[in-house]
UniProtKB/TrEMBL annotation:
Disulfide bond is among the record's keywords: no
A GO molecular function held by the record: transmembrane transporter activity
Spans through the membrane: 12-35, 47-68, 80-104, 110-132, 144-162, 196-216, 228-248, 260-281, 293-314, 320-339
Domain EamA: 198-337
Pfam families, per database record: EamA
UniProt keyword Transmembrane, yes or no: yes
The protein's name in its UniProt record: WAT1-related protein
Length: 365
């Protein structure tokens, strides 16, 4: 039973709730991705979808935040906290989403879905630099976290990149080839390669922004222990920033297609604003309990759920490479969780020993 404890007075029930909740959150987010793909196929503007979902989350959860977390608010709002809120909203919602859209446009959906799985590795480096994550290269648990994260990333990349090839039909292959040829003819001899490099740069930039925002959220929660309020305010600000960006880039603010009726907009509000937003709020709360690396390591689960939903709803089959990637991802996830559990338990024992020695020192002198 102690294997699931994470320290800080955490109970077994809390650990089970956090792990199960993070897994459920990734499944919900995967379902939202499938729904958004349907919206985009109907001609919806991505920035408008982001703005509507963010505004819906803020409108639904801000009253709950006031009722449940008002006593946790600081008596005085500092400028540092305001800047942190702006950076989280601007980076975590507007900039991250826009960079992802630009990256998808210039590369492929497979690469775009695989790239965010680099987040745990980047977060591990950032968190270690800011001493938010324990890092001791001589410690076997740190080494296990590094190996587990690497295995997890390799599995996620393998599942995403190897998913399309075996299941692609000859017709779909011809369409892809024709599209690639058309793109190359329009962009010139070196345009395709240039666009690919630029698109990958956008995706890497999005992952870096997301990693920084995740660490910043953990740091912000230390001085503002109200995760639901933090999410509600930053999502409201993110909705405003995204709407302003759409007006600046596209010249207007609308859904972009007459095919997006009231039922689909309601789906955005419920699935994207309430359910997905609740998942993000739960992730933010988990950040304050377990740290950024622990939360981020569940990210590949969304990739797995997306593949399963695609197979169930779209008739796509999982290749052997994809199945091997799934096994690798969950193997790496288990290794990281095992290392985190044992590392925390060891740290707790060391603290107890140090306290006992301090208390016994006057008696022994």
């Amino acid at each position: 039973m102690t294997m699931l404890r994470q320290g800080g007075g955490g109970s077994l029930v809390e650990d089970v709730v956090i792990v199960g909740g993070l897994l459920l959150v990734q499944c919900v987010l995967a379902g939202y991705v499938v729904f958004v793909d349907h919206l985009l196929s109907l001609g919806a503007r991505p920035l408008a979808v982001i703005a509507v979902a963010s505004a819906a989350f803020a409108a639904f959860f801000l009253p709950l935040a006031v009722a449940l977390e008002r006593k946790r608010w600081p008596s005085k709002i500092s400028w540092t906290l305001v800047v942190q809120f702006v950076l989280i909203a601007l980076g975590g919602i507007t900039v991250f989403q826009e960079l992802m859209l630009l990256g998808i446009e210039k590369t492929t959906p497979a690469v775009a879905s695989a790239m965010p799985n680099l987040t745990p590795g980047i977060i591990f480096i950032i968190a270690a630099c800011f001493r938010l994550e324990r890092f001791d290269k001589a410690c076997k648990y740190t080494q296990a976290k590094m190996v587990g994260t690497l295995v997890c990333l390799v599995g996620a990349m393998a599942m995403s990149l190897l998913q399309q090839s075996p299941s692609s039909s000859p017709a779909s292959a011809d369409v892809v080839t024709a599209a690639a040829a058309a793109a190359e003819s329009q962009s010139g001899s070196g345009g395709g390669y240039h666009d690919w490099i630029l698109g990958c740069s956008y995706l890497v930039g999005a992952v870096v922004v997301l990693s920084l925002v995740t660490v910043l959220q953990a740091a912000t929660l230390a001085g503002f222990p109200a995760p639901l309020t933090l999410c509600s305010i930053t999502w409201a600000m993110g909705a405003a920033f995204t709407a302003a960006l759409q007006v600046a880039v596209e010249g207007r603010l609308d859904m972009g297609s007459p095919n997006i009726d009231a039922t689909l907009i309601a789906g955005i509000v419920v699935l994207g604003g309430v359910l997905s937003g609740a998942g993000v709020a739960f992730q933010t709360w988990s950040l304050g309990k377990k740290g950024p690396l622990f939360v981020s390591v569940f990210g590949p689960v969304q990739t797995v759920c997306s593949a399963i939903l695609s197979a169930a709803l779209l008739g796509q089959t999982l290749s052997l490479g994809s199945l091997a990637g799934i096994v690798l991802m969950f193997t790496g996830l288990y290794i990281v969780l095992w290392a985190k559990r044992n590392e925390t338990a060891t740290s707790s024992r060391d603290v107890v020993v140090d306290d006992v020695e301090k208390l016994e020192a006057p008696l022994l002198s």
